[in-house]
Design goal:
Layout (H helix, E strand, L loop, with lengths): L2 H12 L3 H12 L4 H7 L1 H4 L4 H30 L5 H9 L3 H8 L9 H7 L3 H9 L5 H6 L11 H17 L2 H14 L1 E6 L15 E5 L5 H12 L3 E6 L2 H12 L5 H50 L9 E5 L6 E6 L5 E7 L5 H17 L4 E5 L4 H9 L8 E5 L4 H5 L2 H6 L5 H14 L1 H5 L18 H19 L1 E2 L5 H5 L6 H14 L16 H7 L3 E2 L17 H11 L3 H6 L1 H4 L14 H12 L29 E10 L2 E5 L6 E4 L20 E10 L4 E5 L16 H7 L4 E2 L15 H9 L3
Parallel strand pairs: 4-7, 7-8, 9-10, 13-15
Antiparallel strand pairs: 1-2, 1-3, 2-16, 4-5, 5-6, 11-12, 11-14, 12-13, 14-15
Length: about 775
Amino acid sequence: MNNNTFISRIAEEQNINNNQVQAIASLLSEGATIPFISRYRKEATGSLDEVAVMAVRDRLNQLMELEERKKAILKSLEKHGHLTDELREKVLAAESMTVLEDLYLPYKPKRRTRAIIAKEKGLEPLALIIFEQKGANPVKEAESFIDAEKGVESVEDALAGARDIIAEIINEDDKARARLRNLFFTKAVIKSRVASDMEEKGAKFRDYFDWEEPVAGVPSHRMLAMRRGENEDFLNLDILPDEDEATAILENLFVNGEGDDSAQVKIAIKDCYKRLLSRSMETETRLHAKERADTEAIKVFVDNLRQLLLAPPLGAKSVMGIDPGFRTGCKLVCLDPQGKLLHYDTVYPHMSEKKALAETGKIKSLCEEFDVEVIAVGNGTAGRETEAFVKAVPFSKPVQVIMVNESGASIYSASEAAREEFPDHDLTVRGTVSIGRRLMDPLAELVKIDPKSIGVGQYQHDVNQKALKQALDDVVMSCVNGIGVDLNRAGTQLLTYVSGLNTGIAKNIVAYREDNGPFMSRQQLTEVPRLGPKAFEQSAGFLRIIDGENPLDASAVHPESYYIVDAIAKDLEATVVDILKKPDVRDQIDISKYVTDSVGIPTLNDILDELAKPGRDPREKFEVFTFADGIEKIEDLRPGMKIPGIVTNITAFGAFVDIGVHQDGLVHVSRMADRFVKNPADIVKVQQKVTVTVLEVDLARKRISLSMQSQAEKSGTKVENPGLKKAQKRNKKPKNKNKKNLSSGNAPFNNPLAEALIKSGLK
């Protein structure tokens, strides 16, 4: 398959034209990034967005891997003398890795199988006679193959060996494998059973102790949960279709008579299915189901992470960050509007009333000394108590107190990046700084942490780690470049995600800034060591310089397009500043006058948008959120309460909501709206403020069941989900002898992953 074939195939699959695919392929080969291509090369790509460009990139990589595998297989076939013109054509025509491997299987070097041993005994001619099914008498034919020296001591020995050879022929037949694969993928049932003597140890998987459902419809979280249970030796899994249907498919393919020879073929078919094909197909089906589950789980993770990264920033304000604690005290830091550490200390407001009074004075004094405008309180242990304490401080001027999700702050505090930035401070100071900075700019702080440690997603440690890393890197890069980065404030970690930059260049940018002062123009980037023309082209448009020499440096207008803005200003007899500040001047622009062979309407429209709102932050405006007063621990909750909360994580089965009691509650998907909800992400997003009703509180197991339905007004009231009954009628219920409907029932915590997550902390 040549490159043009790649291009045509992808264009057809993605429903775009060849030129678009060719442009993306060329740009990628030249080192262009996804954000750069989708933002600054719209004429070439036909204005395809990042998702479409990523899809082309990923498919190109798949086809290239397929091409490399074809080359390796052809080389092996030729080396071992198996390659024919017909086989070469089939290999080159294979459109998937599965088809390719099926073609290669009969010729693939293998260990000594029963069929190989039978061939060594000289039984292959007998197998072929029987397999032809032309009416031969198998017993009579087998008599001539008896040879004690070769280990064939009887007619039955000869027939058994012949059947072994026939079984292998059937197992390696590409049509047989294709049809059985389709049967397994579409009709196989996954059965989960508790392993011997594991009922107590594997209690967290008890919903799967006797569970089965069609593998084609198993949700991602259930598939991953069962696989984890199997990997931890608590569960035994089987994925098989109806055996009679499977053997019937094989008999239709290979049995063409009614004689004794056909009877031998039928015996070989049953042996082939049980010993070879069923195992092989089950393995493939497991992998297929796992890949599908991974794809769904990674999508959930990516969507959640994007929402978290794009959470509204507080902005540049003087902040006091507090990491709450009871016995060890509350660590606090004072940060300037750029996030620089000015002061750190420890207060002990929860030791005694006398101590609390003294600490009130200290906090008030520090807020006055460092002109603190906002106090960020971590939402960990003692978070609500500390929040209440700080709110009671008699400040001399208004100071906002805001709870901050501190998930991942401890990970950052122990990281190499934190040690480099704060070599003279311990983990507690670094973690507290992270809490304060996260309020100021969530994105800039979260990029310092491994996304898997942030606390969103489901079963992130069970999915394909390479695919997960690629997806997470893509979404972080998309968010960073979509917002833009302040060149004179960004740290190394944030700069690393800018299009065209890497860790080395990012460090050089920071070092240059420290040695030479703030950048005054984008053009200065060319003076940074190792930042060559390509890196400049890719990165410059995403880097912002506020109050620089050129006002366009604060915008997303790429330097390569500055000449267009200059031409517009000249034609209008105005300055660039006039265009940026005066709408009436911008209204006079006729962009059609500036269309050229390389610059089209899409780019000109982007430039016009930037001139209207240069460097605008696409994130929503920050809004202060507060939890319900007096609700600080799980014991304070009562069924029927309506309280505010904030969504912390979205899964396939519902959403987890922080209601300020140190334990997130679960809004099951069946409780998310007054209608049937298939995907929780259609209703809520991470960091969204919601109002929930407490349905049930299990103090012993620290489980909280919540509802977002308007009917859920008091405890014990069964809340019907309109549309749910219709959905249940449409979809056949999976068999579950535990008599729980894990897929869509209304009972709180009737989902095994929710059960496992809440009780055992599985994430």
